[in-house]
Hints:
- The protein is an alpha+beta fold.
- It contains 56 helices and 26 strands.
- The strands form eight sheets. The chain has a seven-stranded mixed β-sheet, sandwiched between helices.
- α25 crosses α26 and α31 packs antiparallel against α39.
- It is extended and about 180 Å long.
Amino acid sequence: MERVTAMAASELYTKRARVWIPDAEEVWKSAELTKDYKDGDTALQLILEDVTSIEHKLDPKTKNLPHLRNPDILVGENDLTALSYLHEPAVLHNLKVRFMDSKLIYTYCGIVLVAINPYETLPIYGTDIISAYSGQNMGDMDPHIFAVAEEAYKQMARDERNQSIIVSGESGAGKTVSAKYAMRYFATVSGSASETNVEEKVLASNPIMEAIGNAKTTRNDNSSRFGKYIEIGFDNRYRIIGAHMRTYLLEKSRVVFQADEERNYHIFYQLCASADLPEFKILRLSSANDFLYTRQGRSPVIDGVDDTKELCITRKAFTLLGINDSYQMGLFQVLAAILHLGNVDIKERDSDSCIIPPNNRHLTAFCELVGVTYQDMSQWLCHRKLKTATETYVKTLSRLQATNSRDALSKHIYAKLFNWIVEHVNKALITNIKQHSFIGVLDIYGFETFEINSFEQFCINYANEKLQQQFNMHVFKLEQEEYMKEQIPWTLIDFYDNQPCINLIEAKMGILDLLDEECKMPKGSDDSWAQKLYNTHLKTCNLFEKPRMSNRAFIIQHFADKVEYQCDGFLEKNKDTVNEEQINVLKASKKFDLLVELFHDEEKAISPTGQVPGTGGRTRLSIKPDKSRDKSSKEHKKTVGCQFRNSLQMLMETLNATTPHYVRCIKPNDFKMAFSFDPKRAVQQLRACGVLETIRISAAGFPSRWTYQEFFSRYRVLMVQKDVLPDKKLTCKNVLEKLVQDQDKYQFGKTKIFFRAGQVAYLEKLRADKLRVACIRIQKTIRCWLARKKYLRQRSAAITIQRFTRGYQARCLAKFMRRTQAATMIQKYQRMCVERKRYRKKQAAALALQKILRAYQARQKYQTLLRESKSVIIQRHVRGWLARCWYKRCLVSIVYLQCCIRRMRARRELKKLKIEARSVEHFKKLNRGMENKIMQLQRKIDEQHKDNRLMSDKLNSLETSYTTESERMRAELTRLRGAEEDAKNKGNQVSSLQEELERLRKELSTTQQEKKNIEDWTQAYKDKMEKMVSELKEQNGLLKTEKNDLNRLIQEQSQQMNEKMVRAIAQETQQLETDLNEERSRYQNLLTEHLRLEEKYDDLKEEMRGSKPGHRRRDSTHSSNESEYTYNSEYTDLEEGSRAVEDVTRGIDTSLTLKLQKRLTELEQEKQSLRNELENKDEQFQRARARDNVEFKKARGAELEYESLKRQELESENKKLKHDLAAMRKSLLGDAATGAGAPGSPAYKVLLDQLNSSCEELEVRKEEVLILRSQLVSQKEAMHHKETMTEPSVYADDVSKLKDTDEIKQAYVGLKDTNRSPRFMRQPLDVGDLLSRLRSAAPDFHKLNEDGELWLVNQGLKETVRLLEHQLQTQRRTHDSEVETLRGELQNVKEENNRQQQLLAQNLQLPPEARIEASLQHEITRLTNENLELLAEDPTASQEARVIILRRMVDLMEQLEKQDRTIRKLKKQLKVYSKRIGEMGAGQTEGQTSPGQMVDEPIHPVNIPRREKDFQGMLEYKKEDELKLVKNLILELKPRGVAVNLIPGLPAYILFMCLRHADYVNDDQKVRTLLTSTINSIKKILKKRGDDVETVSFWLANTCRFLHCLKQYSGDEAFMKHNTSRQNEHCLSNFDLAEYRQVISDLAIQIYQQLIKCMENILWPMIVSGMLEHETIQGVSGVKPTGLRKRTSSIADEGTYTLDSIIRQLNAFHSTMCQHGTDPELIKQVVKQQFYIIGAVTLNNLLLRKDMCSWSKGMQIRYNVSQLEEWLRDKGLMVCGAKETLEPLIQAAQLLQVKKKTDEDAEAICSMCQGLTTAQIVKVLNLYTPVNEFEERVSVAFIRTIQTRLRDRCESPQLLMDTKMIYPVTFPFSPSSLALETIQIPSSLNLAFLTRV
Length: 1893
């Protein structure tokens, strides 16, 4: 590394400068200079961090000074190349600080990502982290494996070049995990190009390869014992289509041997742990300690790992990759056989031979598992065959040789099994789709050096030499490209080239060549090979050395370190031989096909692609030459070293053809301790993995690179005002020339300034000095200001004290004066009060004496006057009574005389009338004018009644007044007599009163004396009481105090209880709201998923259609919420799609084609099942029709029975009436002799009234029958107009189920009650609904299927059947049939007319009381005949007739019920009048009312015809114009023009007005098709222009308005509260569209979510730049000297966004929604979602960017948030909840600014950051980075304190906020005040075909 020059040394090595010195324990130790360094000094005076003073001697030869330490603000940088001083101690210290203090395991080192294994699970690999890194530039976020993966993915898409990620490191460093996370990132980000879930299969290969290729070592519990390179293939849309795996150098020796504290491969222990499973009984396994191959390491268990669960995961992965259960059991049998083979006990027979005892348990198990014979296997385990040119020999093996042969066979079987699994994994991951590009992930072992290094370490280090060479060349290439791009002069950088070491290994006569040559020698050995190495390379190559004390080892100087290799075993491992006869025995297995499959390619050459190069260990068999296979035999003889070299060469070619990305994994310690850092081990690995070489190459040039803007922002403080020029580039040049004199220390590029190592530190020192001087000046000014403020406060306080003291004294004087004046005033008023009381007592006594005297005199005078008055009154009343008595006697005599005379005349007249009545001619004469006479007689009777009533009233009033006056006079007389007696008694009492007065005077004197005594006693008692009262007051005061205390305590407790209750209620309310929002969110997520599946389905259909030339494209109408119309169209589309699939032959993936064919088969089966179901439904319908006919006859019988019962009842009532009438006549005739029935008599009047009422009742019955008949006819005609909206089959079924009269009556009562409800007053009568309510226990066929699919199918089939029947009937109905029908109707009318004439003639001949019965009987007979004729003519029409009959029956029942009520009234009145005729006299009947006048007029049910209205607010269109309407109003409508020029929501109003007309004309098909077309068209336009915010916002507003219109005009009372009377008239009248409202609501939710996504896509690029990166407050933050190396290829020039950009975009969104008429509540929800996205994205980036976590950045964020809040206030949206969504971001900004030192600070942080999780708080504190030297880092102890305080929090461990979360949306009902009739349609919409109605 380049050292500083002498001139720079004098400037940099000054007092207090910090340096790094070597240390044996910590590698490097920090120290500080205590004196300046001067040229010529031989030592430096230093002080260590533990305050130990030392003297550091300089090397006298080199005079190299120790490494300088970087400023503290540069420590912990994301990129090691950003350090000012680039050297080993700086790199090590930076990694240690990040790893130990900040808990950051990833760090950039130029193009390399350094990953330190934390030995702890970290929450930084979730899907939220993947989403955060997706689409980001590599330098924009904190270092992460996802950032490297994203860079590779982005470069693949941008540069059209394949990529590679090279992951290397020691065992236990975390290579496998890093590679696994990289593949997970690709699988998550890219997705799959087909439905085969390739990304899941790629990830599923990991557990399989870990099970068979990973094992526990002393350094790692899950160490990969092989290398692998996985190529992940992508299509032209960069979606995963497949993968391919190559493996390298499997460690086969681990199968038969493990060192202490190590394990065999995981799969063996997983099988042993699951040996108890039933399916594993045949494997005969037991504990891992029972097998030799699994117990040698004496560590069969890994802490925290459940091998049983791991086996389940492995088996699931096998299944996912297509390896079925039979193959899996075969694999497990092979693995179990290997374990049993290792336990085969070979006993020694002699020194050259051995034997296996017969019936060896483990060998028997092995043979049974692999299907070979016991004798053959035991024979060839102890023998081998030797072949010569002429003979074949069988040679015995020693026990050691046999054991080695057994182990070799085990290794060979396992290697073959490994190869087979890898091959099948590749087959499962392969695809037929053309691969456009790929990303390779190389997980390979790092540089290894142990105490004993053998052939495996040699191959590993050879591979690392090749990779290091490729790495060095790539780094040098990037440096060269950077310099050339910036157009600065550059010189060739000298870097280490390890080509000589590679040549030593692989060149001609290199180590591998000599090894292969020695393997070919018949008697080759490791010793002879070592001697050849010494002779060839010892003197010719400096990199090759021979150990001093060994002749069987050699040393190679690798790029990382010297490694000594032991030659023992090199030849054997390179040859990798196995006994040929043992292989032949295994091949001969006939019971186990898998074993044969493993060895079927034993004779074949290795594949050129090298599926598993270097892992198979090809077997060399000494066999007789075969000419036909000579070539393959030669190919087969390749050694392991040769195979590995070839596969490594292919790997290097692949890597050179791709863009590499490097991940270097570092193992921090050898003890697997979490976050423990061992500097020695770390430095060793940094040297070995090439990180320090990268640092050296960077430091050799210009490592620090700044843009001109960054340099200007950072070092603006070093400039004066005159240095600042408009051109930033020229300004930076001028300043640098003044600050740095040496021109070689920097270079100016096109966009950047390049600095030599150490120059940034020098500039930072100048900047810190300048800021320090400025800080001192600021402190001086602030302290002066604070001192003056303190003095002013003290002076003000003194003045205040004086003022209050003087005021207190003045108040005391005023108080004394007020008290003196008050005392004088009290004395005055007290004296006045005493005198006033004395005066008032005297005055009261005098007034009392006067009052008593005057009262006595007045009473005496009053008594005299009263006696005189009463005497006069008595005389007056007595005289009047005598006169009235005389008058009454005279009047009675006169009246009696008149009555006698009139009775005599009446009898004479009656006799004359009887004689005349007996003559027939006179009776006819009377009948001719009967009506006139009756009317005249009635009038006369009424007049007489009126006169009698008046006379009776007068008489009653006179009697009442007379009685009252008599009673009053009697009472007065009694009172006067009593008064006279009292007067006598009073005279006697006067004398006694005088005596009493004397006695009272004496008692008065005695009483006065007693009073005086009592007053004295009272005074004493009063004093005593006053004393007692004072004591009680004191006690009362104490009690009051206690009471107040208790009240206060009670209030506090009650307040606490209330607060607890309020909190509990608030928590419960919040929980309910949370649950409701979660339910809404889940429902809306389901809608989103449904929409995604719809789009996927549409895309699939389009792809299928597009693959067929000339195929016509149609819109998809697939929706689970649509009606049968939609279902039919979907069904058609599916059939067309099935035909299209048959024509697709090429260009589509085979797997996709198979899946489509499978789906097509399922659809065909579903179609066939639906057809079968339709046939079953038809059969059931036919059976139901036959059953209906039978049940109809029964029902008709019940109806006839009911009618006959009513007729009988009426007949009985008529008979009773006749009987009563006859009885009345008889009674009248009986009374004729007495003259009571003469005309004018009361009985006669009653009879006439009863006759009149009977006649009126007969007329009413006639009118009712006629009205009933006309009503039935009108209802029959009305039913013909409603055939399209009725379902006769349902009604017929319902009617047929009413089997008796009781059920019919119940139906009638229920229908009557239903008609009275408000809902049915508005809508027409629906008999089906009535009957369904009466039999509510029956299931509703609409709910048979929860999803409504069967209902949709059934409805669609019904519609189809109805259409076909209608067409068939239309074709059959010809002109001739119409003429015949008309003729038949004319004949029926004639016959009916004749019958009516006959009936009229018959009725005229009948008596009046029999006419109504005959009319009713005739009507019932007529209806019965019509029904029977209709049933005989047309069974289908009979079903409609049943409905008409039911309604007729209902009307009949209603009429009959009213008639029953009338009859009951009449019967009651008849009984009353009959009773009165017998009881009442002639004078008592005159004031009664006639019965006919008391009868209530019955309510006649009549048809109310619809009043013709001028219906407004409706638009009519023709059926063929529906497509034109949808096209002009939805598909081709431009939102911008509509929003600006027309009223908001106009399309919604137009669609609703069209819908209203369809509802008005009662056309259900038109309603259904209009709604379906509208929904599908909106979906189509959103799919077409779904990324346009204006379009989505426009249709969101119109969809919501359409939904509100459906609610507002639905007729529901809840939605009609705010309507005007005119709007209520516009309500829908025929259809209930509640289900469609739900469909449209779901559509609105989908549009809302799409709008949010569109807005997010626009806002997302602005958020980070505007909220975090841009300096809204200029000069506050300044750019930290990170020198961040952003690769040119990673930076997309998108422009710079500011906070103003975000606010402008928010304004644009808000104005767009307002112009479109979006509901204000919906706008609030949109704004809340926008602010959540802004806050979440900003906070997530803050948590992933260390450079943003500083005090100044916190200020910038708070300022930006305040600007957003100001925007909310301007728009009036502060209450929408948007501000609360920014609360986590605000708290994070506050956390960056608060103090972070003491426990009080920790408590304040915990109470302040309630919106942040513990993980987020700790992450911010760990990332907090000082931008200036005046800021301090957060100590580790403080972070631990925070974690301890937050330990009890119950929260999610998730680090990042969910940026994909969308708040559940609601659509509050918002009625429109706009009247529909006032809407005008502009001509620009091209809707002239619409007609206003």
